[in-house]
Amino acid sequence: MQTVVVGTSGTSAQDVVAVARHDARVELGDDAVVALTAAREIVDALAAKPDPVYGVSTGFGALATRHIGHDLRAQLQRNIVRSHAAGMGPRVEREVVRALMFLRLKTVCSGHTGVRPQVAQTMADVLNAGITPVVHEYGSLGCSGDLAPLSHCALTLMGEGEAEGPDGTVRPAAELLAEHGITPVELREKEGLALLNGTDGMLGMLVLALADLDVLYKSADVTAALSLEALLGTDKVLAPELHAVRPHPGQAAAAANMLAVLAGSGLTGHHQDDAPRVQDAYSVRCAPQVAGAGRDTLAHARTVAERELAAAVDNPVVLPDGRVESNGNFHGAPVAYVLDFLAVAAADLGSIAERRTDRLLDKNRSHGLPPFLADDPGVDSGLMIAQYTQAALVSEMKRLAVPASADSIPSSAMQEDHVSMGWSAARKLRTAVGNLARIIAVELYAATRAVELRAQDPALTPAPASRAVIEAVRKAGVQGPGPDRFLAPDLAAAEAFVREGRLVAAVEPVTGPLA
C-alpha cells in the first residue's frame, strides 16, 4: 500500500487522489511534528495572557466581541464543532470526505494553525482506519471555508456523531474509534476553529475533477477522431502547421491526439466521393479548438489547485515570529472561479460531442451511413434514443454551467457578508463530470458502430488505433452493429469503459501517450 508523508510544504494532487480514492496510508513527517509543536507553544503562550485573541480567547464570527475565560475555553472549542456540524441532505461521497480530511490535515501540519501534534496524529489515524465521517450535501457557503462539512469531520475526531466504517456500515463514531484503538480528542484553545476553517472540501473536489477531466479530454479526442473517420472527413485540418498559427497549447495537443488516432486510416479524405464537400462541419473541423480551449482551462485550474495545495488556509494563522493574525485567506473565490470555469468548458465539450453523434445518425448528413445506424431502418430504430439521452445530459450540463461563484448570500449577522459558494460550484462540477463521461460514451458507441459499418466495404479500412478501440470496447461488453436490442446495458458498459480510462488505454499502445 502506498504511504503519503504529510510535511510542512503542502501536498500534491497525486497524493490527494491516492488517499481519497486508493486508501493510501498517511504518516506525519518529522518536519510537521516540529512545526506543530512550535506553533502550539505560541498559542499556549498567548492563551495564558489576558489579551483577547480571536479563536483562542474570544467567540467566533459575529460573536467575536466576547472574551472567553480559561474555564470555558475547552467548552468553546467543543461547541463550535457541534453547532457548526449542521449539514443537511444526502451524504457526500466517501472519496470527497477523505480528500477534505486529508487536505485539512495538510494545513494543520503546516504549523500555521496552532493544533497540537496529537490532534494531527488522530486525524491520520482516522484516515488510516478507513473511518469516514458522515458529511451532508448542504451546509457550506465556501467562506469561512467549508465550515459544516469540516465540522462533521471534526465531530468524528471527538467521538461524536456518525461515521462510515471500512465495511461501509454507518455507525456511531465513538464505536468505530474504540474498535480501532483511537482515543477521541479533547480540543483545546483554537483547535476546534482550526479544524473547520478551510477550503478543503472544494479543493478536494477540484483535484478529483482535474484527474477525471484529464482522462475525459483525451477520451473526447479519441471519439472525435472516430467520428471524423466515420463521416469520411479530412484529417488535413489537424496538421501541426495550421495550429501553430494560432498558438494555443491545448488546441495543438488536441489536434495532435486526433491525428495520432487517425494515422493510417483509409476512411479519411473522401470528401469528393459521394456528395462533394469543401469542408467538414464545425463539430468535426473545430474539435481541436473546442477541446483545446477546455484543456487550457484545465491548465489554469491546475495552477490554482497547486497554489492552494501549497497553502495553509486558516483564520487566524500562527506566524513564525509569534504573532497570531486574523486574515481572509479562507475565502474560496480562487477555487470557486475555476470550478465554475471547468463546468463551462465541460458543457461545451459535451455539446460538440453530441452534435457529432447527431450527424452520425442523420442519413442526410452522414454521407452514406444508414439512418440512426439501424440494421433495418423502420423496423429498427438503431441509436435514435441513445442520442435523446445524450441530448438530455448536454442540456443538464448547460444548466450546471451557470456560475455558482457569481452568487453570495450574507451570513453570521452580516459579519460574513460576502461568500464564495465554492462548495456549490464543486458539487455541480462533480455532476457535470459524470455527465460528460456519459456523453462521450454515447459518441463512442455511435462512432465505433459507424466505423464498423464503413469497414464492411473492403476499400475503407479504419486506422489501426480505431481497430484497437473497437476490439477493446467489444471485449468490454459493448456490442456492435445489428438488430435492435436493450441499449441501456451497452451504454452503461461504454460509460465505464470511458470513465475508467480504458478507452485511452486502448489507443495508447498504438498512438503512444496522448497529450
UniProtKB/TrEMBL annotation:
For this protein, the record's Pfam families field holds: Lyase_aromatic
Q: Which residues carry this modification: 2,3-didehydroalanine (Ser)?
A: S144
Question: According to its UniProt record, which protein family does this protein belong to?
Answer: Belongs to the PAL/histidase family.
Q: Where in the cell is it found?
A: Cytoplasm
UniProt cross-link 5-imidazolinone (Ala-Gly), position: C143-G145
Q: Which reaction does it catalyse?
A: L-histidine = trans-urocanate + NH4(+)
Q: Name one GO biological process term.
A: protein homotetramerization
Q: What's the Enzyme Commission number for this chain?
A: 4.3.1.3
**What name appears for this protein in its UniProt entry?**
Histidine ammonia-lyase
The record's account of how the chain is modified after translation:
Contains an active site 4-methylidene-imidazol-5-one (MIO), which is formed autocatalytically by cyclization and dehydration of residues Cys-Ser-Gly.
Class in the EC hierarchy, top level = lyase
GO CC terms on record? cytoplasm
